[in-house]
């Protein structure tokens, strides 16, 4: 029988944390009245993490291990865990002991109450303010504004998902933190609850400024997917009109000045229409407008080809009757 609960944990160079993590997981999960599995994905660790994991996999038979050939990143590790998971409910968490396994039953209870995604909120976060918490506050506010999903902590890995909602979500790059937004896009019901957060005891953080830049770039992708994935002409058309309307107005003004000079002999605008910049500018703006509209039409054809060739739906059904 398939387990009801799957816990997915990406690991990268956490040799010292693994024994404490595995023992704590066993303590919490064995107290729950449901069948479970733990899927741990070694994301190309270069220390003794894999050897430690094999020791505990032989001790606890419900531990399932996946090992990457090299470091592919947290998103790839989570994606591999999702593909291997068999449970109806999937929990994700970090391996660095900052997430507390004791919060797992609360997350499961929220999913069973009817939510599709339950996100952890590190209300009392134990990280440095300047280097970790302040950038996180800014990023969370920006992500909430852009995606329309109001969460206070997108970056918390401790989350719970209903199996079927993940079947409609594809992640890559650094997009694992945007899963709640992508789940909302396909019609998922989202909730957020406070969770315990511990200070890091072993090793060092894997986050740096380059990762922040990648997250911001992926935010642009997610924003495009949510707003314009089935109507890309809308965004390119708006950009085109931003250039086209001023171009048409300037061109119309030049024509009026020329006609008033030729027909009525007025001096108004006589010097203006003799300047090359005022002659070239409207044509360049109109050209930019046409380029963006053509780009939007090409993108429309690519999107339609994508949906039709892969049979990707443009809507998602929560429930069927009969």
Description:
By secondary structure, the protein is an alpha/beta fold. The protein has two domains: 5-228, Spore Coat Polysaccharide Biosynthesis Protein SpsA, Chain A (Alpha-Beta Complex), CATH 3.90.550.10; 232-310. The protein has ten helices and seven strands. A seven-stranded mixed beta sheet has the order 3-2-1-4-6-5-7, with helices on both faces. The longest helix has 35 residues, at 276-310. It is elongated. The protein starts with a strand and ends in a 12-residue tail after the last helix. 33% of the residues are buried. The model is unreliable at 314-319 (pLDDT under 50).
Count all strands and give the number: 7
Which class of secondary structure composition applies to the elements?
A: alpha/beta
| Strand adjacency order, main sheet | 3-2-1-4-6-5-7
Please name the fourth-level CATH homologous superfamily of the largest domain: Spore Coat Polysaccharide Biosynthesis Protein SpsA, Chain A
Dominant shape: elongated
Total count of helical runs of at least 4 residues: 10
What is the count of distinct domains?
A: 2
Instruction: Provide the low-confidence segments as ranges.
Output: 314-319
* Termini gap: 26 Å
Q: Just name the CATH architecture of the largest domain.
A: Alpha-Beta Complex
Largest pleated sheet: 7 strands, mixed
What fraction of the residues are assigned to beta strands by DSSP?
5-15%
CATH-assigned fold name of the largest domain: Spore Coat Polysaccharide Biosynthesis Protein SpsA, Chain A
Question: Which radius of gyration do the C-alpha atoms yield?
Answer: 27 Å
> What's the CATH class label of the largest domain?
Alpha Beta
Tell me roughly what share of residues is in helical segments.
40-55%
Give the integer mean of the pLDDT values: 82
């Amino acid at each position: 029988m398939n387990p009801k609960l799957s816990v997915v944990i990406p690991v990268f160079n956490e040799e010292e944390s693994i024994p404490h993590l595995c023992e704590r997981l066993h303590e919490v999960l064995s107290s729950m009245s449901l069948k479970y599995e733990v899927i741990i994905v070694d994301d190309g660790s270069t220390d003794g993490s894999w050897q430690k994991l094999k020791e505990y996999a032989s001790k606890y038979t419900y531990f399932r291990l996946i090992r990457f050939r090299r470091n592919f990143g947290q998103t790839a590790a989570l994606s591999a865990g999702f593909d291997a998971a068999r449970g109806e409910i999937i929990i994700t968490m970090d391996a660095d002991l900052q997430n507390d396994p004791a919060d797992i039953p609360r997350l499961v209870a929220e999913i069973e109450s009817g939510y599709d995604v339950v996100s952890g909120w590190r209300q009392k976060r134990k990280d440095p303010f300047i280097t970790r918490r302040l950038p996180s506050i800014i990023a969370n506010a920006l992500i909430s504004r852009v995606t329309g999903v109001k969460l206070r902590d997108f970056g918390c890995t401790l989350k719970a998902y209903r199996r079927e909602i993940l079947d409609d979500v594809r992640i890559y790059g650094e997009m694992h933190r945007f899963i709640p937004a992508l789940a909302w896009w396909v019609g998922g019901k989202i909730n957020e609850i406070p969770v315990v957060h511990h200070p890091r005891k072993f090793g060092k953080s894997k986050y740096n400024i380059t990762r922040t830049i990648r997250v911001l770039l992926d935010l642009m992708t997610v924003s495009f997917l949510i707003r314009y994935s089935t109507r890309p002409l809308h965004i390119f058309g708006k950009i085109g009109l931003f250039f086209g309307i001023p171009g048409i107005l300037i061109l119309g003004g030049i024509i009026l000045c020329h006609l008033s000079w030729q027909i009525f002999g007025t001096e108004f605008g006589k010097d203006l229409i003799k300047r090359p910049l005022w002659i070239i500018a409207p044509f360049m703006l109109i050209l930019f407008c046409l380029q963006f509209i053509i780009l939007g039409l090409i993108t429309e054809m690519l999107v339609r080809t994508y949906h039709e060739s892969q049979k990707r739906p443009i809507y998602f059904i929560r429930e069927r009757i009969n």
